[in-house]
Amino acid sequence: MKPMRLHDKMIKNGHLLFKYRGQFPLLLLFASIIIIYNTDCCQAPDNTKITIQILAIIIALLGLILRYFTIGTTPEGTSGRNRDEQIAKQLNTTGIYSIVRNPLYLANYIIWISIAIYSLNVILMILISLVFFIYYERIILTEEEYLLQKFKNKYIAFCQKVPVFIPYFKNYQKSQHPLSVKKILKQEYSTTISTIIVFLYIDGVIHYFCNSTIYIKPIYIQILIISLGLTVLLKIIKTYSDILEN
Asked: Which CATH number covers residue 72?
């Protein structure tokens, strides 16, 4: 057997990572316990800690908004929550895709780096950034290989204008598809509740290591209960009706 080229090996790995990308965050959660255990956030002044954690929540909201806007203005028939294979009935080149080629992955990174910021742990911030780069680099390479084979010169021209990960706002072109709130409600409730749960998880881990007690702030419990209620409601509506269908 001939040795596989590094490019081909990365694409092969990308197919596997694409299929199981939903399980990836769980590994980071387990790793965060060990890292946060060795953090010095317990020594940080309360005012500093609160300020940084509020900033982290704002950053997470920006990541969620980016996901909402991307999902809400993207036509059906493109890769989103599918796991088994790449899907692209058309090439997205307007709206958010006119300024960055991978807005959903950028949004995911923003959300996860905000979680690391919330932990006040520089090591966790560096680890998440490094792992995301290695992980998503292979997935993006796999997706781009698929899009190149399908759209050929059109995709090459698109890549020459639009950056992979860092938005270039001067490129912005209004989306050809109006924002669909129904699509956002249908597809993004799971991401939203997952983000809330992870923040509560990190907050609980920090409090336990700093105070040796399990404690969740009452406001967080209220937010969780409301969010879970809305999630269950949207899940029921999605399953048993077509209200959220465009």
From this structure: 1.20.120.1630
